[in-house]
Amino acid sequence: MEIDCNRCSNTNCLLKKSNIVALINSLKSTYKLKAEQFVFKENFQFDGIYIIQSGKVKVVSFGYKNRVQTIRLTKNGDLLGYRALGQNTFSNSAITIEDSTLCFLEGELFYELLKKENVLAYNLMLFYAEELRIAEVRMKTLSQMTVNEKVIDAILIAYNNYGTIDNNGILEIDADLSRVDISEVAGIRSDQFIKVFSELKNMGKIHFNKNKHLIIDDIEYLRDQVKIYR
């Protein structure tokens, strides 16, 4: 399938911010993936970069005994696979959280576009700088947080990426994220996460709705618990 860049609603797409959208549109390909499918796998051959046209994807890394660490939660317009630029293999994996549509640009073509288009190269540099800043802050805070704070921080990260507010003021994480998914964002064992999660639920701070989406009942409480890291 093909989706015209000029008709795409994503305003934060890195490729669309360049001066060669028409060329990119003619070179890219677009395809669909079902939920829980790999976009690419860690240590597999790098083939190119991906943009989420619609959907949600988690970027993960597999550690000792295949323990999973979720590095990033992504949504419409976000770039995937960029950490492998200049390398032969992907340094992490990307897995769809829900049915998603992705645009793909082959690696060699992307390199050639970067050489020719200064605006694209400049925007990519700014993107890298911001991602590095976020990673540094995250590394610093995780090293200082308690288990309780890590759980709350992971919930807030999920809300910042996928949060919605309805007409009744209900705050919902509009994504099919399980307790295991959120524990992987927190970077702790699932049993540690479930203990703290249950405590927050019993306190009336969070709960799951009938669609199995997490509802935040007291976001100010959660934010207050980790405000010293903000």
SSE layout:
Blueprint: H1 21-27, E1 29-33, E2 38-40, E3 48-54, E4 57-62, E5 68-74, E6 79-80, E7 93-96, E8 100-106, H2 107-116, H3 118-144, H4 147-162, E9 163-165, E10 171-173, H5 179-186, H6 190-202, E11 206-208, E12 214-216, H7 219-225
Antiparallel strand pairs: 1-8, 2-7, 3-6, 3-8, 4-5, 4-7, 9-10, 10-12, 11-12
Outline the biggest β-sheet.
4 strands, antiparallel
What is the name of the CATH superfamily of the largest domain? Jelly Rolls
The overall pLDDT, averaged over residues, is 93
Cα end-to-end separation = 42 Å
CATH class category of the largest domain? Mainly Beta
The helix count comes to 7
Which labels suit this protein?
230 residues; alpha+beta; Jelly Rolls; Arc Repressor Mutant, subunit A; 4-stranded antiparallel beta sheet; 12 strands; 38% helix; 23% strand
What does this structure look like?
The protein is α+β, with helices and mostly antiparallel strands. It folds into two domains: 5-129, Sandwich (Jelly Rolls), CATH 2.60.120.10; 145-229, Orthogonal Bundle (Arc Repressor Mutant, subunit A). The protein has seven helices and twelve strands. It has a four-stranded antiparallel beta sheet. The chain has a four-stranded antiparallel beta sheet with strand order 2-7-4-5. β9 and β10 (171-173) form a beta hairpin. The longest helix has 27 residues, at 118-144. The radius of gyration is 19 Å and the shape is globular. The chain starts with 20 loop residues before the first helix and ends in a 5-residue tail after the last helix.
